């Protein structure tokens, strides 16, 4: 799904982070507080993080970073043994901080192909 624009939004009231690409969702897999959306082509096209401030704390992602997120990138890699790595990169530009973009990488626990 390279070349597709990844969109990001953070619902501060419900504390849900949405990262998604355009496409029709065939189904999803829930792993802890993460919901991974899968397209009809078996590509990962969305990640929702429920209770995001708590679930992303271990990755040093703050509410402020989510609120000022500028872009995100969904990352996935399929291995020959059937396991799949899914995660995302989050880029934020927080106002009144040094002119530096905050970057964080999140790895969601492994998924096996049989779950797709």
Q: How many strands in all? A: 8
Radius of gyration: 14 Å
Q: Strand sequence of the main sheet, in spatial order?
A: 1-2-5-4-3
Distance between the termini: 17 Å
Large-scale geometry: globular
Low-confidence stretches: none
In the residues, how many domains can be counted?
A: 1
What's the average pLDDT? 82
What order do the helices and strands follow? Answer: EEEEEHHEEE
Number of helices: 2
Sheet/helix structural class: mainly beta
Determine the strand fraction and express it as a percent band. over 45%
* Helix content class: under 10%
Largest sheet: 5 strands, antiparallel
Report what the structure shows.
- By secondary structure, the chain is mainly beta.
- The protein has one domain (6-115).
- The chain contains 2 helices and 8 strands.
- It has helices at 52-55, 63-67, and strands at 6-11, 16-21, 25-31, 34-39, 44-49, 69-78, 83-92, 102-112.
- Strand 4 (34-39) and strand 5 form a beta hairpin.
- The longest helix is centred in the middle third of the chain and has 5 residues, at 63-67.
Key features of this structure:
single chain, 116 residues, mainly beta, 5-stranded antiparallel sheet, 3-stranded antiparallel sheet, 2 helices, globular
